[in-house]
């Protein structure tokens, strides 16, 4: 009798622990204390809970709480209007099973920073490859109004809802800035100072990765069939879509102001494909975020040796990739490009002068996004060629106040109808045009500038924005004259 009673009691007690237990409300990593929410707009807060769970959200800046119910899959999301106040805020999220308070939230400008190793490069630099100005920048970095969030490297064959390893939102300080993207920091630090509002930087990049890895399956499948059935290696970061899945998709729909992008070296050798992929990536991300054509500012890859000094007409000549990046401006609304013809290093693919690159991205943002129209952001772009006096006169757009060279122009070549390019003498005339000539080309037809892997740019506007490498022809069978 006693044994039966004990068994019955044990069974009853055990049943208490097999009843359904309500799951706690979960938030994505990007939605947390210390975050920066885009100011003066409508932002998204989202997460997960039990299907049908009722949730109450109380933002401190709203008079009335927001009430919602998780859908049948346990997903929930709510739109919240933000203001322009500089005061820190809190958000309380409550359900039957949860009571979460997010603290020290500020409203400001949020920028997503992505790409490959030149975007990843921190103030530590790489082995034997420094970041100029690192020590002073890190020393002066303490700033509660500059917030940093880092997505650590990860891959996935399916789109993830949340990031894996990450560094959560933190206020900038010498400790956490040291390992952060130098370009992103230089951009954000100056933007914060100029606008005098909080700035949030979301860094998500991976060195040595092609653009295809950062595009969604929806977009990539319009170009070729992607089969990820056999994908199981975390080191396969160059596989199409796997970085988008793990390092971009989990951030959506966190409201951003715009994007900074520094990538391209891993796509050298296939400039025609990159010419298509670059606008496609921007279209892809904008479609996924659903906040319109947000600003997209990117960096043109810098000159570098690439162990191939003889490449000229072949795609291995990265002037073709730089040309693809230049042409992409035509197809990407609300975009801008930072040229780097003067900051490259012959035997280092990671230029140390990261601040100058960040400055040029900043000029684009200030001019085109924030209304500082007096700030020049547009570099000289070839406009027209006129044959005259045995040479060629080149005219440029975006050179309203003239063009400039520190110590004379170099890197120009000129060709006649035989499509053989000879080294040419070039000089600035009337402070606005360039006259190019060679005694070996009596009847010039075309001119190229900086058309090789490694070269030091010499052509600037008066605000010292360097011109991209360019060509006035579209020949696919040109050659260089041999010495």
UniProtKB/TrEMBL annotation:
Q: Matching InterPro entries, A to Z? A: SASA, SGNH_hydro_sf, SIAE
Pfam families for this protein: SASA
Its name, as the record gives it, is Sialate O-acetylesterase domain-containing protein
**Which species is this record about?**
Flagellimonas eckloniae
Cell cycle: is it a keyword of this entry? no
Q: Which UniProt keywords apply?
A: Hydrolase
GO BP annotations of the record are: carbohydrate metabolic process
Q: Specify the domain of life of the species encoding this protein.
A: Bacteria
SUPFAM superfamilies recorded: SGNH hydrolase
Record domain Sialate O-acetylesterase: where = 109-344
Q: Name one GO molecular function term.
A: sialate O-acetylesterase activity
